[in-house]
Predict the structure.
Amino acid sequence: MNSDVKHRLAGLACILAGAAISWPTIFERIQLAQQGVASIRTWSVASALVGPLIIIGVTLIILGARTEPMTRDAERKRFRPLGAVIGLACLLAALGGMLGTMYVLRSYGYR
């Protein structure tokens, strides 16, 4: 199996992992809130992983084996502009997943 296929399969695995984590950490909590359960425990750290996993997975599927050379300058040990954009998108997605879940639960009256 060549490197490009391995990168694209890793991207698919990241997307599947993000989707699998999203059910118990986000959607099940919202469903419990809609049912009016007395208290709900959130998995804030796990819900923060959903967005970055999906973003990295999509990046790997689109770019394949070209992901590292397009996102990172190995000689100077720095991100290239595309890598910085992807990193910023992952950070924002992580914050959005964590804070968004907490905001929705608070709108249902949970702390």
The chain has four helices and two strands. The chain has a mean pLDDT of 90. The longest strand covers residues 72-73.
